[in-house]
Amino acid sequence: MSTFALRLPDSLYAHARKLAEQDQASLNQFITVAVAEKVSALNAVAFFAERAGAAKPGDLASFLAMVPERSPLEGDER
Prior knowledge:
Helix content: 55-70%
Number of domains: 1
Oligomer: single chain
Number of strands: 0
Distance between the termini: 53 Å
Order of helices and strands: HHH
């Protein structure tokens, strides 16, 4: 595991510390989870951008054309 000295503005440090306490976690654990969430979100954006870039115009229309025509199920009319 790596260590990293982090400089935070006092107000952000105090807020993060309070949130960590509410979450019953150490500040280190709270910040680690926050960084992991951000990395995951950015990876997801990159993944979907790559997938969308591979799509061709008309792909969605072709996919939707495979759905059979039928009335909505009871309760799904709206």
